[in-house]
Amino acid sequence: MKKFLLIIFLLSSVRVFAQDVKISGTVTAAGSNEPLSGATINVKEKILGTTTNSKGQFTLSAGKIKLPFTIVITAIGYDQQEISITSANQTVSTQLAVRTTQLNEVVTSATRVNQSILQSPVSIEKLTTKAIKENPSFTFYDALVNLKGVEAVTSSITYKQVNTRGFNTTGNSRFLQLVDGVDNQTPGLNFSVGNQFGASDLDVESVEIIPGAASALYGPVAFNGLLSIKTKDPFRYQGLAVSVKSGINHVGETFSDTKGLYDFALRFAKSFNDKFAFKLNASYLTGSDWIANDYTDINASIPAANRGPNNPARDALNIYGDEITKNITGVGVVNRTGYEERDLMNYGVYSLKLNGALQYRISNNLEAIYQYNYGRGTASYTGSSRFDLNNFVLQTHRLELKGSNFFIRGYSVVENSHDSYNTRSLGQFINRDWVQDLSGQVVSPADADNMWFTRYEAAYKGNVSGVSANDHTTARTFADKGRFLPGTAAFDAAKDASIHNYGLSGAGVFSNSKFYHTDGQYDFSKYIKVFELLAGGSIREYKMFTNGSLFDDKTNRISINEWGSFLQAGKKLFDDKLKLTASIRYDKNENFKGSFTPRFSGVYSVTPMHNFRASYQTGFRNPTPVDQFIHLNVGPITILGGAPNNSKGLNVYENTYTSASANAFGAAVGAAIGAGTPPATAIAKNKDLLVKSNVAYIKPEQQKAFEIGYKGVVNEKLLVDLNYYHSSYTDFILNTVVIQPTSPVLGADGKPNMAAAGEVANRAVKAFQLYTNASDKVSAHGVSLGLTYLLDRGYVLGGNVTKSNFNLGSANANNIAQYNTPEYSTNMNFGNPNVNNGFGFNINWHWQSQFDWYGTFNGNRPGRIAAYSLFDAQINKKLPKQNTIVKLGASNIFNKHISQSYGSPAIGGIYYVALVFDSPLK
């Protein structure tokens, strides 16, 4: 910090010897001649600037700046204008032309420098300030699914996960989400929890999405794409803004009454003398979450025809505790009685976001920024179980120095899981607190499951007086005697005790993990002239702490260091019609070999409005901290991360048999002994069935992708965006099970050791689930088309369609991350911001085809996601004198209940009314 402050002091001491410049002027709207309040005036290639007051007037003190220079004037909904300043006291009077819609936006994420979206070398989508204001969905984040090629999965009202180009999950560690350049992932989960801890609608200026590999510029997390959220600069967006949104959901449901949904947000920003500015944000969303109540029997060990509510071995999708099973001789397969998710999950969800930022312009080309974000909330998350992220807290601190051609940024991300828990484990633990023995005494939790099955067996076989024999219903009723019923004091006490008990003895999830990150970049282009050159790099350190509940970190604290750097060069040829760009990045994690990720692209501009592009991109993903260092003994098996240091001294990767060979060996020995062969002879004859495992330590996943596309504007009315991509993937991270005896697995002859084989036969072994990689190669390809057409009188009609295909080839499906992507998805939108007298509207329609969802929640077995369509709509009225917009809208207006991932809740309609007050200062 001392060094950082010294740099600020030295840079602030620099003075350019030139005359004092103070310019003033007025900005109005062409045609109406109305003053434009809040228009931005910036000095080109500097960070110096100001905004207009309510009369459209401005004054800019440029200090000792060399003449001549150029100012850039911008305002939302108007064309940009540049004006040359040639005198020290120049007066400017200008009019900005109205811009009906943004067909040629400026984007930053594609090359990390500003450029026209039409000339981006890769596919990129943008949600503008205007689009956010006109969005009919309940929040701006819900609207992302309407962008071309974007997929969305809803686990909770407060948690939606987005993805691009396949391999979708409910917790996407292959997709990078940035908020003002800060990685928004939680350190323990290793993925962003949607917008739970992000930005409020009032403070979001724009959202950019790069579909597909972006590792060449953004590092390992951007394996499958990038989402970059940019919030509003307090120098440019000043004043008080307040949003009050009230809605309802659970409309027309038989399992829930209609519930209220509320979203409040406030933003205030102020600049002083165009040198110092601050902003404050507060938002709070609360409501009743969607209910996961799919009770389909998913017990794969029972024939499909025998499954259902009357199956004694019923394992319902959203009932937990019923996974505990036993095959009782003379009775059959029986599962314990579970609890519905609605009795275990906290459906009273909320999202609190607090944000503050201070910005100081040290000189005309140097600005210092400090920003603090505090997020706290409750959300439901579908992973290997349904998790309740209850009162989860995420905090970030950001300190940044930036100029017109560079920045250096440092930030920290800290989490506290608080009262979070695993609902599946919770159901199982509550089920172990009340089981009685045959004399009516409550047994210990360790004996509860076995005793419950003993009671069931006794009742079913007629060994209990007064209980009918051979009746599964009466046997279950007897076994369930004393069961804690939801809503009772005993149930609530058992639930609370398990939630606050962490590790294997409870359902609680504990993590106080954090990471620190520093990154920066410098644009050398204006010094080199011959070609463009951009350089940058980053350093990150993870510090994990779960107090032994997930990692072996009670005394052995886990830290992970990684760093990366990149170079990007660009050159225009053939009268600037062809732009070639090449970039390469090198990343090194302390636990893995370094990875090079190059990217090459070319854009050919027939005219500025018609552009063809082609690119070769690469991506890689480092294993997450969990992939590397999980060390969890769950009784019959130990789950072990794949970093070499995590298994040091355990001899697991070196001395184990494959699980498949151990199972085959065990079956053969059992059959031989059953046929009368002496055990020692049976073991000796079959020991060569055992196969020594050859599991490699974990390493990064890899991707290579090609893309071609066209983006252009026809007759200044029609925007066309067409692209095709093909991606190949290797080294997918997976789990494999191995069996470890204490004796060496191989003898001196290189064949399975007799002593080790004996241990396997006698089950005197340990089982480990190891993280490693698959060598299988798969590919995916897809094509997308987007169209936006400007109709007369301000109407806009747009739409897009995406076709995605996955090619498994000869790969083993068990070794590959599941694709989880519909073959077809389409979107259409139609709207007009001002139909008449301040009234506007917008309608969005989304449709996607059916597909099978694979995930750990259902043991990686397929669950069908049916085809569905969603309509969002809003109408609004602008009240200019009151600086207010009144909006009436609905998400999923026809209230179709649809699930976007198997095991997650079905989402219905949200109907709302909103008032947005936005009063700029000056």
Automatic annotation (TrEMBL):
GO cellular component, one term: cell outer membrane
Domain TonB-dependent receptor plug: 118-225
Cell compartment(s), UniProt: Cell outer membrane
GO biological process: siderophore transmembrane transport
Signal peptide extent: 1-18
Molecular function, one GO term: siderophore uptake transmembrane transporter activity
Domain TonB-dependent receptor-like beta-barrel span(s) in chain numbering: 365-893
Keywords, alphabetical: Cell outer membrane, Membrane, Receptor, Signal, TonB box, Transmembrane, Transmembrane beta strand, Transport
InterPro entries xrefs: Beta-barrel_TonB (IPR000531), Beta-barrel_TonB_sf (IPR036942), CarboxyPept-like_regulatory (IPR008969), Plug_dom (IPR012910), Plug_dom_sf (IPR037066), TonB-dep_rcpt-like (IPR039426)
Topological category with respect to the lipid bilayer: Multi-pass membrane protein
A matching Pfam family: TonB_dep_Rec_b-barrel
Transmembrane region(s): none
Family designation: Belongs to the TonB-dependent receptor family.
Protein name, as recorded: TonB-dependent receptor
